[in-house]
Amino acid sequence: MSVTVLNHSLIKHKLTNIRKTQTTTKDFYQNVNEIAGLMAYEITRDFPLKPVEIETPICKSVQYELANEVVIVPILRAGLGMVDGIRSMIPTAKVGFIGLYRDEETLEPHEYYAKFPETVKNSIVLLVDPMLATGGSASSAITMLKKRGCKDIRYVGLVAAPEGVRTLQKDHPDVPIYLAALDEKLNENGYIVPGLGDCGDRLFGTR
Ligand code: PRP
Ligand code: URA
């Protein structure tokens, strides 16, 4: 399935802001949300519409609304940093949650939480996580969503390593991947190069 790296000057500018070491927690969180909102605007460009009959102050008219419900599913924790930005573009979206953490030595993902709206399986699911490194977390999250019957899943991330893209394409060839940047590689500790460091820690001020 397709990999789309969104080509937008504002996205590139804000991504540069969050890559800088000196960016504060407040500015980091704000820029991540702004990038997520801009990405949502681009990704939803061709979402299916349905005709609806409405009444303007002047006359009856047939206009268009989104045909499908949208569910945003952040992978905890770092995915939480993208939710508000996407909701500012799609305020009717519901939100589910997947709790996963990467074991720092084996880099294997471990599941600790899952909660979804009842409508998730018939919705367009935007699975969001800023970082696609080995791809293990995103691949496990997609497997969890598919087990719950989700059929239309789209992965939305900020920065990816080629290794993570390859893993997702191999494990879930039906899931389109949307990115703000495709970086060079993973380093020996499983961090994306040049990347932006530990996204969860930088979003929430932890270490
Ligand atoms: C980070 C990131 C992804 C994952 C990516 O989360 O937010 O979920 O690593 O790595 P992968 O592609 O190799 O699986 P982390 O496990 O550090 O948890 P956190 O969001 O709670 O900090
Ligand atoms: N998770 C992060 O937060 N950053 C990386 O570079 C890789 C995984």
TrEMBL record:
EC nos = 2.4.2.9
Q: Which residues bind uracil?
A: 192, 197-199
Q: Write down the required cofactor(s).
A: Mg(2+)
Q: Where is it found, in Gene Ontology cellular component terms?
A: cytoplasm
| Biological process according to GO | UMP salvage; uracil salvage
Q: Name one Pfam family in it.
A: UPRTase
List, for all copies, the residue spans of the domain called Phosphoribosyltransferase: 5-206
Function field: Catalyzes the conversion of uracil and 5-phospho-alpha-D-ribose 1-diphosphate (PRPP) to UMP and diphosphate.
Q: PANTHER family recorded for this chain?
A: ADENINE PHOSPHORIBOSYLTRANSFERASE, URACIL PHOSPHORIBOSYLTRANSFERASE, CHLOROPLASTIC
Protein known as: Uracil phosphoribosyltransferase
Instruction: Say which species the protein is native to.
Output: Anaeroplasma bactoclasticum
